[in-house]
Amino acid sequence: MLFGRKQKNPIKIADKGVVEWKYTTCGYCSTGCSIEVGINDKGVPVSSRGVGSADVNRGKLCLKGIFEHDLFQSDNRGSTPLMRDKRHEPFKEVSWDAALDRTSAEIKRIQEMHGRDAFAIVSTGQIMTEEFYTLGKLARGVIGTNNYDGNTTLCMSSAVSGYKRSFGSDGPPGCYEDFEHTECLLAFGSNLPEQHPIIYWRLTQALEKRKFPIIVVDPRVTMFAQKADVHLAIQPGTDLVLLNALAHVILEEGLEDRAYIEANTSDFESFAEIVKQYDPGTAAAICGIDEDTIRNVARLYGNAGAGMTIWTMGINQSTHGSDGVVAINNLNLITGNIGKPGGTSLSITGQANAMGTREWSSCSGLPGYRALENPEHRKEIANYWGIDEDFLPKKRGLFQTDIFPAIETGQIKGLWIIATNPMTSMTNTDRMRKIMEKLDFLVVQDAYADVETNEYSHVYFPAAIWAEKQGCFTNTERRVNLVTNVVAPYKDSKSDFWIFNQMASRFENGKKVRFPETTEGAFNEMRELSKGRMLDYSGMTYEKIEQQRGIQWPCNEADETGTQRLYVDGKFQHADGKAKLIGLPFVDNNERPENEFPFWLNTGRVVEHFHTRTRTGKIGNLNKFSPTPYMEMNPDAAKELGVKHGEYARLTSKRGDAVVMVQLTQRIPRNMVFVPFHFHDCVNRLTLGLLDPHSRQPAYKQCAVRVEAVADQKAAAVRNKAARTY
Ligand code: SF4
After folding, report:
1. What's the rounded Cα separation, in Å, for the pair 632 and 186?
2. Is the CB of 64 under 6 A from ligand 1?
3. What is the per-residue pLDDT for 322?
4. In contact, 358 and 160? CB cutoff 8 Å
5. Closest C-alpha to 337, from 378, 309, 367
6. Arithmetic mean of pLDDT over the chain
7. What local confidence, expressed as pLDDT, does residue 1 receive?
8. Mean pLDDT confidence for 92-97
9. Using CA atoms, how far apart are residues 145 and 416, in angstroms rounded to an integer?
10. Greater confidence, 351 or 211?
11. Closest atom of ligand 1 to CA, residue 475
12. Is a pLDDT exceeding 60 seen at residue 370?
């Protein structure tokens, strides 16, 4: 009898007729995979594959990367500028000159009537670093508004704020190679296998060579929690309490690294005083992890020769987001786990170039991690750009999450939205609708004309996407990699870089300031401005970056290959050169479940979705695998309410309601439901989004809802379908 392959149809891989493979970097998440796009003999992108020689992904891609070539021809790409006199009227197609002239005239009119800061700009983590640098020059040095921010406030600003408070600067200190050396991995609020599959694959590669414990802290039994050695199903929003308790046990049992603390940190005594109050018994009553488990985890981490902590939105999207990051840094500072192989605090970033905007966009400061509050920094940049130093503000303006309320109060009259979609991504959709209606003028710049926010615009700029342009992205581990223009921009869409340069030429200051004509010219300015700084790009060129498949900063002119880890010498960016240990009392300050709204609402991403589905919602296979707004619910809780698997149910919070399909699973505790956050008119109708006081990031992951069975399933299906949009 014959067994095996001879009795089966052999697997066939379709020949797509690729005649050339072009190098670029994936434009979805911040893992930073090197990718090659295959072009057929008609010049059409038909395939994508991972680059084997790239250290990040070693030939692998996740589901999104594999179908990334489909983006170039995806539906509803903006093909020409659009304009209308009043919002909601039909758009008219216009020339680029007409759209740019009207927008610059509106900016000037609003600024003359209401002051420079009455016009705001909200950008993204999606565009190239050179585009961020150019936009920063335009916003700070030419238009001169201080109400300028990015959508990274919704995802990474707690990490930025926490790094600055602990180390004196932003900049993730570790790298993926730390998995190869660590003896204990602690992961907070990060479902790595779904959110960052290739980073997870790097972790599994390390685990195949050498076993070390994985501890996952998450209220749900996520995919990552299922793979962990220890899963801590924490009460939502109480990570700070657990982290204080871990530090408490480590100090109580003498597991700290005294020599490291004395040589490299400040304020140990006041920190130790605070954590003394968080004995495991007290902490267990708040965070829901039993005393013994807290002690065991503290011992595992404290005794590890090298321990690393990673985290994502479970920490950042909380009213204690920034404190959570500082508490992670505290834990790693007292155990001497910063700047050594396998010992680090590593935030796992979301968007492909969230790091690029943090480094160069001037949203929170000035280019190259300079601060608006520092007179020397203002002088350096004003001189370099050729503007009057006094034109720059002396402190940062509003964060994105404060810009929208300022529109509501009439302080801000005009807005430029670039590659972000607040009508889906911001909390409390109903309030956002009213806010957008209040604007005197809105311009939306996006690759897709059907992006929900564009419903409220007066002018629409069609932007080129990802590999229709050339420039750099920085990934989670500070690796700068090159995106090349695989194909020309779609129809009459233009690169964001071109749009910013054109806008600058319509302002008086824009004629004085030099705006290079190519992204490589902008990159060379960044190299000059970063020379000798922590964020040093001076040793990089496009050619070297492509040859090495990405270079980690700092990389100075004498350096060929960049730097894997920061703070290896124990010297930090605070004035005294030390890292700060900061004692953090826990204040319970968020909405909690109660009688009328008895469930926690937890939100998050699934592997098929990205960035409010503006792109992934249009890619056949990605949309096919997860097209329906749904919630995970515990079967026991569902039974009590008469809610059934596969039917529709209504979720209601104090802000609004949403209809979702029910997926019953034991992965979720009885008092919680989970809903993916990328569907329009769905979960953010419910969210409250109280803000972290330091980072102004919303607490997307914790608010209170009730769940009800829906009698009219047909009507519910219609409502649910409306939330799919694409
Ligand atoms: Fe792209 Fe991230 Fe997937 Fe890599 S893991 S292919 S960077 S989406």
Report:
1. 25
2. yes
3. 96
4. yes
5. 309
6. 93
7. 46
8. 98
9. 11
10. 211
11. 7
12. yes
- Confidence (pLDDT) at 5: 58
Strand partners, 481: 473
Q: Which numbered atom of ligand 1 lies nearest the CA of 65? A: 6
Find the length of the chain: 726
Nearest-angstrom CA–CA distance, 722 and 681: 8
Query: Does 26 sit in the ligand 1 pocket, CB within 6 Å?
Result: yes
Residue 202 beta carbon below 6 angstroms from any ligand 1 atom: no
Pocket test for ligand 1, best of 55, 198, 199, 616 (most atoms within 8 A of CB): 198
Return the best residue to mutate from 47, 51, 196 for the ligand 1 pocket (most ligand atoms within 8 A of CB): 196
* CATH fold for the domain made of 599-722: Barwin-like endoglucanases (2.40.40)
57: CA distance to ligand 1 center in Å?
9
Q: Is 18-73's fold the same as 82-155+353-534's?
A: no
pLDDT in tens, 296-312: 999 999 999 999 999 99
Q: If you ran DSSP here, which 8-state letter would residue 57 be given?
A: T
Average pLDDT value for residue range 274-303: 98
φ, ψ at 360 (rounded to 5°)? -130, -5
pLDDT in tens, 12-36: 667 889 999 999 999 999 999 999 9
Considering the four listed CATH numbers 3.30.200.210, 3.30.470.20, 3.40.50.300, 3.40.50.2000, the one that applies to the domain covering 18-73 is: 3.30.200.210
Which atom of ligand 1 lies at the shortest distance from residue 57's CA? 4
Cα 21 to chain centroid distance, Å, stands at: 29
Distance CA 322, CA 338 (A): 18
pLDDT digits 0-9 by tens, 554-595: 999 999 899 999 999 999 999 999 999 999 999 998 899 999
Model confidence pLDDT, tens digit, residues 34-54: 999 999 999 999 999 999 999
Helix (H, G, I), strand (E, B) or coil at 405: helix
Q: Hey, where are the domains in the chain? A: 18-73, 82-155+353-534, 173-347, 599-722
Question: For residue 198, which atom of ligand 1 is closest to its CA?
Answer: 5
Beta carbon of 649 within 6 Å of any ligand 1 atom:
no
Q: Is 348 in the pocket of ligand 1 (CB under 6 A)?
A: no
Task: Confirm or reject: Cβ of 197 under 6 Å from ligand 1.
Answer: yes
390 CA distance to ligand 1 centroid (A)? 42
CATH fold group of domain 173-347: Dimethylsulfoxide Reductase; domain 2 (3.40.228)
Nearest CA to ligand 1 atom 4: 33
> How far apart are the C-alpha atoms of 148 and 389, rounded to whole Å?
18
pTM above 0.90, yes or no: yes
31 lines ligand 1 (CB under 6 A): yes
Predicted pLDDT at 723: 64
Q: Please give the distance, rounded to the nearest whole angstrom, from the Cα atom of residue 201 to the centre of ligand 1.
A: 11
The CATH class, in words, for 82-155+353-534 is: alpha beta
In sequence order, which ranges of 152-304 are alpha helices (DSSP H)? 157-167, 192-195, 197-209, 223-227, 239-252, 258-264, 268-276, 280-287, 291-303
CA of 50 to the centre of ligand 1 (A): 10
Cα 220 from Cα 234, distance rounded (Å): 9
Q: Which residue has the tokens 């800061």?
A: 117
- Cα–Cα distances (Å) from 579 to 261, 334, 573, 576, in that order, read 9, 11, 8, 9
3-state secondary structure of 213: coil
119-123/148-150 β-pairing:
parallel
Which residues fall within 8 angstroms of residue 215, CB to CB, at 6 or more apart? 184, 185, 186, 187, 228, 229, 230, 231, 232, 297, 300, 301
41, 360, 363, 675 from 133: Cα distances, Å:
36, 5, 10, 35
Provide the CA 329 distance to its chain's centre, in angstroms. Answer: 19
Q: Which of 25, 33, 348 to mutate to test the pocket of ligand 1 (most atoms within 8 A of CB)?
A: 33
Q: Are strands 184-188 and 214-217 parallel, antiparallel or unpaired?
A: parallel
Cα-to-centroid distance, 357 and ligand 1 (Å):
19
The answer, yes or no, to whether any atom of ligand 1 lies below 6 A from the CB of 65, is yes
